[in-house]
Amino acid sequence: MSKIIAPSILAADFANLQRDIEMVNKSEAEWFHIDIMDGVFVPNISFGMPVLDAINRHAKKFIDVHLMIVEPDRYTKAFADLGANMLTVHYEASTHLHRTIQQIKSYGMKAGVALNPHTPVHLLQSIIQDVDMVCLMSVNPGFGGQHFIENTYAKITELKELILQKNASTLIEIDGGVNNKNAAKLIAHGADVLVAGSFVFKSEHPTQTISELNQLVNQ
Ligand code: DX5
Ligand code: ZN
């Protein structure tokens, strides 16, 4: 399977959102990554349902929604109705993770679980077979433009081992501080999906930057 670049809309120009969405539509990226922050689970508020609705009306690719909110199970249906294809909840925000994952799947979405940088991979031992994707946070969630945390490589290796050991087909996504210096190394360690926000949208030629990343991870 080819490796996936998922530009994070958090770094887009919200005053030119349609333009930036069309840019991703025409690019080599396969997914849109959408960050929803509630100001409680993380110390920042991004955007909510009306904005996702607007994105969904223009986006022509797979929509990967990353919920950084408390009590995510209250909103699974709402995000399905808004066009999410993958819904990722945080391990740290989910009291009944198994139930939440089943709920997400029952609405026809793929189910993802995100781990904060300090949360160990082994906590997923009893749930990994039910999860379509694990998102390893490579920065502390809440903001774009932060520095990549190097310990992520070791977590990818451990997660890959767990997936193989359990005979699961779970994808590994890396979120935070991804750029052209670490992309190939992340893939070599076992990552399948790379989220890139600032590196794409703050670059001079975002379409070319996506293409460059795509070539680095699919060589
Ligand atoms: C951080 C978000 C990320 C963020 C990545 O909490 O989950 O998706 O947009 O942005 P960069 O690529 O700038 O680190
Ligand atoms: Zn994210």
Automatic annotation (TrEMBL):
One term of GO molecular function: metal ion binding
Positions with a binding annotation for substrate: S8, H66, G142, F143, G144, G145, D175, G176, G177, G197, S198
InterPro entries per record: Aldolase_TIM (IPR013785), Ribul_P_3_epim (IPR026019), Ribul_P_3_epim-like (IPR000056), RibuloseP-bd_barrel (IPR011060)
Residues where a divalent metal cation binds: H33, D35, H66, D175
The keyword Isomerase is annotated on this UniProt entry: yes
EC numbers for this chain: 5.1.3.1
Protein name: Ribulose-phosphate 3-epimerase
Organism: Psychroflexus maritimus
